[in-house]
Amino acid sequence: MSAPTPLDNYLVVDMSDGIAGAYCTKMLADGGARVVTVEPPEGDSLRSWSASGSAADTDSDGALFDYLACSKESLVVDPDVAADLDMLNRLLSKADAVVWSRGSRLTAQTALAPSAICDAHPHLVVTAITPFGLEGPWSERAATEFTLQAWSGGIVGLGRGAPDRAPVHVGGRIGEWFAGAYAAAATMTSVLRGGAGELVDLSMLETEIQGLTYHSTTFQELRGRPFRSERSIFIPGVSQASDGMVALGCATAQQWNDLCVMVGHPEWIDNDQPLQITTRAAEFATDIYAWISERTVDEVCEAATAFRIPNAAVGNGANLPELAQHEERGSYIKNPTRGFTQPGHPYRMSSFALHQPEPAPRLGEHTEALGAELSAPDHKGDRQQATTTGKPFEGMRVLDMTAFWAGPSCTHILATLGAEVIHVESTSRPDMTRFIAGVPMTDENWWEKSPIFAGLNTNKKGVTLNIQTEQGRELLKELVKTCDVLVENYTPRVLDQIGMDYESVKALRPDIIMVRMPGFGLDGPWKDKAAFAYVIEDASGLTWLTGHPDQNPVEPYSIGDPNAGIHALNGLLVALAHRDRTGAGTLVEASMIEAALNVSAEQVIEYSAYGKLLNRDGNRGPVAAPQNLYQSAGTDEFGRDDCWVAIAVETDAQWSILREALGSPEWALDPALESADGRRAAHDLIDEKLGQWCRVRSDDEIVDTLWDAGVPVAKVMQPHRQTELPQLEFRRFFAQVDHAVNGTARHTTLPIRFSSAPEQFDMRPAPLLGEHNTEILTGIGVTAAELDKLESDKVIGRKLAF
């Protein structure tokens, strides 16, 4: 008999359709939960799906389904058969959680709406995944993952793509995967920490904002300008080497200077204008690309690593499993159903094994057995509703040794949901997001004025400790003894060198859960690589699917960090379930790269199962046809002829609606266009005609005409204008936060609403540097006199001291 897994006493019913819900329940199954997928007689839509269309040529279920449905059971329920619905209700009476989305005949039933399920089964946690949330002015509006990217501001938010072309969305339907990871964390939070049935309402629009934009509203309101308003191609970025594509990134002046030396041109360094990286790189782009083209990917990466320049081979469905780091760490495994290649778990535990995937179920494979089980008189009693009090993580103390975006985005959720999160910095090595503001260093307290730091660290406490000193390390050890959880995202050598590896931390606090978030893992040939978001995107395939097909791919420059954060939170929640059950802590190794490999899984699966290499296709996609960005009339807020709308037609019915909204022009009446295959074959023609129609209309006119009719459409928003969206206002997604230095600005909350919690999240400002030194350090026995001595010795402090 295999050892128990943390979630193996939980029963989850999957009533979702599509990637988001399936990935959510896959993560729960990996933690050991029993997952029953409820399907109509025609089966889950993913059974017939493949991005390349190859599943239609086989008698088997689609390979992506076989990946996402590993270890699950299949129950067929015909919504027109009363006995089937009765069996479903008996299953729900025994379950702990339901994951729900629209899209199937089952969830279209009024009696199976989320609120109805909650009313009938008040013990259940019901997690609803919808485009805009269950309530509000947009709750019933048509949307796709593509149009949600546009509404979120994520298509243009970080300046992705060339200014002389249409902006480009992040490929691979990344928003669906990211929403699934968020839904898994929200479900576990409610089931494991809430103790009662409730409705968990997740908005995919809000998850897109969290994953594809960078606290843009807060930046605009605090700094009076957008974080980034123009598109550009980062240089070197993705480049062609002699044997493949490689990516190099220069995010700092030092990295640019090192690149100049690496390619043999130290004279390019301009010490008088050290921050003009983009301008200088563009000036010498031809020479830089020539240097790269004469070398192999490995040679370029080896040289860049020696100079500590962020770098990676650019992965795709064909080469990802063969990249040295992934191969050595065993990041890919064989699918137990059909033997194709798929990612392993996105995190690893030291104290217990996660559930190993079992074959995906055949349609209705478990219907008969479940029917017998649910009718047996000795089945375990119905779940009873408990009483929820307080926030889910109240009473938990978290030591937050994170910086930049990935780690803080994980601990931000914990802090917002009640944990006491202590963010550790030092006066000589602060969290570098404090520097992302464009505030002159001559300003008083300039390091307190970063909107990015403010957005990522609300509700946290802040202490400064110089852990390069013996006193600082001793204080850190004393602090560890008081904490339930430690989260860190340094490169592996940092904590190892000061004696704070997991075994050392465990000796201080035996039941601690230590979440380590290295870029590429704690071992392997790439473990010491610098791991900025874009490097993770390059090395995982996320970059490969983003960009226009006639150009090199472009880095999303966004999702790599927050995706790592939400996966680390999922790993932490599984570890908490293990500790709740056994009293034992564990090391959670949640590398950024393996989180990214999981959400880019479809590329490797398609290539391994069907031999088809998925490629970027601009703003087209594998589901909707037509799908694209179309330029509208008018100028944007910067006076540029650069206004766009996103349109995506996913069904034949939507095509009919679009055709009528256009006035049924002759070109659109071709019978071949009534099918998705026909529209995809004529995509160029449709783009031309639809582009002409849009070009003479404003974006507001286009949206009003098409959306009111039921066509998925969106304006391509600048992200700092998110507060103008009535749906976000209705859901109170933004909260006003008063800061002692910055004043008041709106900050994002969380993309989920818990029915047992207040409608508005309580948001306290991010801590000033060392703001809580006295409170936290006196709590571990430091006296007032010792505090003064520590400050004079520069072990702690309230001001930067380089």
TrEMBL record:
Q: Which UniProt keywords apply?
A: Transferase
Establish whether keyword Lyase is in the entry. Answer: no
Fetch the InterPro entries from UniProt: CoA-transferase_III_domain (IPR050483), CoA-Trfase_fam_III (IPR003673), CoA-Trfase_III_dom3_sf (IPR044855), CoA-Trfase_III_dom_1_sf (IPR023606)
Alphabetical list of Gene3D superfamilies matching this protein: Crotonobetainyl-coa:carnitine coa-transferase, domain 1 (3.40.50.10540), formyl-coa transferase, domain 3 (3.30.1540.10)
| Record GO terms (molecular function) | CoA-transferase activity
The protein's matches in PANTHER family, at most eight in alphabetical order, are given as:
SUCCINATE--HYDROXYMETHYLGLUTARATE COA-TRANSFERASE
User: What protein name is recorded for this chain?
Assistant: CoA transferase
Identify the species of origin.
Gordonia mangrovi
